[in-house]
Amino acid sequence: MYHFELDEEIYAIKDVDLVEDWLAALAPLIDKLANNHYGTFFESCDGLGIKERDVARAVGKAMAIFRESQERLDWKKVLKHALEVELELGETGRSDFQSDILHSSSKFQSYVESIQEAILEAGISDDLSEEVISEFLMLTTQAMEDLDNSDIFDQLRNKEIRFVYIPGFVGLPDSIDDLYFRVDSTRVNPEGIRSLCKLFKTDPLSLMESLEVSYDDTKQVDSWLNAQSGFAFGAEKASGREAAYIYENVGSIYAAPVWIGMLSIEDILKIDPRKPIALSGGVAGLHNFNEGSGHLEVYPQEMSITMSDSEVLWCEYGHGEQRVYWFNKKDLQAKISNEEPKKIMPKMIPYPKKDDIFEFN
After folding, report:
1. I need a surface site. Which of 117, 128, 334, 356 has the fewest CB within 10 A?
2. Is 150:42 a contact under the CB 8 Å cutoff?
3. Among 62-66, 239-243, 334-338, which is the least confidently predicted range?
C-alpha cells in the first residue's frame, strides 16, 4: 500500500503498478475538480461561429424528418439533433472546451505536478506514469462533460433567425430553383400563379382582374382560367391588388413566390410540425435568389399564411433579402403558430314569416 498527501488529503494506492488502482484512489479528486472547473459549453461560447442560414436549414430538415416518421417523436429532440448535425457541433467540441478550461487552470496544473511527483516517488515506470496522467486527464474531462447540461438551445436563446417559406417547397432533395416561373401576364404559368395567389390569399381570376388583363384576348384569358382550374382557397379571400402590384414591379423575368420573416427558436419549439402552421408578419413577394432581383413588400398585418403539412421552412441562399432590399428589423418581425382549423358554421335560413308567404289561387 502506497500513500501520498495532496491538498491536505491522503490518497492510498493498493498496487502502484496498476493504473486502475491509481485512478480508483484519485476518483474523489476527479469529482472535486470536475465540480469546481466544469463550464457550460453552449452558454459560455459566444456565437460558436453559428451561421443563420445553417440554423434555418436545420429547422427545415427537422420538420421533414419529424413528419416522415411513423413513430411518436419528441419535436425538441429531433430539432436538437438536426441543429447539432448541421452545425457540426458534436461531442468533440464539448470535450475540447472542458479540456481547455482544465489546462488554463493553474490550480489544476499544480495537482497534476503533485501527482507526477507521487508517481516518481513510488518508483513506477515512465510508460505507466504517462498512462496514469493521461487517464486522469481524460476522466476529469469526461466528468466535466457529464456535469454540463447546456445544449444548442441555450446558444440560440433570444436569437431571431431569418426564415424563408416558398409555397410548394417540401425540402431536400427538391430545389427552390425548380419553383421559379416566368413572370409574364401574357404567358401565364399556372403553378407559379397559384403559388403567388396562395401567398397573398387571393385567386388567379382576382389577380387577372387586378392586372387588367384584356378579356378580348381569349387565348390569354384561357391561360388564366387554366390557372384558376382546381384552385381551391376557402372562405376568406383577399383582393388581388397586393399580388398584382408585386407582379407588375418584380423587375425579374424569373422568380419564385417568397415569404421571409424573423422567427425565434423558442416559438418554433412550441409548434407541432404535423399540424397546420400559420405565419404572419415579415415580408413577401417575388424574388430570385440567384440574380438578387425581385420585389418584396411588408406582408399585410391582417393576413396570415397557412403552410401545408408537407411544406417546410428553409434558409435563404445566394442573394438574400439583406443584400437586395432595405427592410428594417421591425418589418421582418414574424410569428409562427399552429393554426386552429376554422369551424364553418352552416348558414341559418330563417323560417319565413306568415306575411312573407305568397298564396296562389
Report:
1. 356
2. yes
3. 239-243
CA atoms of 164 and 281, how far apart (whole Å): 12
DSSP 314: B
Strand blocks (E) in the chain:
2-6, 9-13, 160-165, 181-182, 254-264, 277-281, 283-288, 293-298, 305-307, 334-338
The CA distance from 1 to 242, in Å, is 86
DSSP symbol at 213: -
Q: Which residues contact 134 (CB under 8 A, 6 or more apart)?
A: none
pLDDT band at 41, cuts 50/70/90?
confident
The alpha carbon of residue 2 and the mean position of all alpha carbons in its chain are separated, in whole angstroms, by 56
CB atoms within 10 A of CB 354: 5
Residue pair 279/261 in contact (Cβ under 8 Å)? The answer is yes
Rounded Cα–Cα distance for residues 193 and 183 (Å): 9
pLDDT score of 335 more than 90: yes
Take residue 336 and report the three cell numbers written for it. Answer: 409562427
In the numeric block, the cell 459560455 is attached to: 44
